[in-house]
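Milestone M4 deliverable, item 7.
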Amino acid sequence: MSVYMTEAEQIEVIKKWWKRNQNIVTIILSVILLAFSGFKYWNWHQDKLNQQASNAYEHMMFAFSSQDNKSIRAYSKQLLSEYKNTIYADVAHLTLAKLYVSQDKYLKAEEELRAVATHSKMNTLKQIAKIRLARILAANKSYEQALSQLNQIDNSAFTPVVSELKGDIYAATGQYQQAVLAYRKAITEVQNQGMGNLFLEMKTNELLAMTQSMNTAVKRIQAA
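Output delivered:
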């Protein structure tokens, strides 16, 4: 638009431009407003869902502390059906697993833990579920499956727990040297974290004493 146009000429040019482009401008503005409104609604909806899920989670935890099994199941079902894509659903699975273990329903507990170990979007929860699953498998003498779960743990924060559990499995299956090595690894990791575990050291010493006793007995038999 020329700077030498009169004000009336400039207004006339603007009118002609608007007449030609008013429809597309209106459409663009409408799309922008709709997108903005949709974004605001989506955020509001997500906040509302998170708040509702948080409330259900708090009620579930209160029910768990009160040993109200009926309410635990009810709130867990709500979290799993209505908020299945949130972290609260993972916690519901873990809570149900604890409940089933307390009732000696190990297969059901395994199902809940496998759901988290397989589908959780949070890697830490996946690994916690695998450790708990390994404990159940080991308790049921499914040692190979338990070790398979533990071998998938790659978070160093869990190394002491994983190593100790591996030691327990090796000890239960008569692999005493591997058990001692696993226990020692657990002790080293615990010490590196500035902590101690007297019970773990006692298990290690007891296993070492047993191993030495067995070796001595074998030597006596061979010498006889």
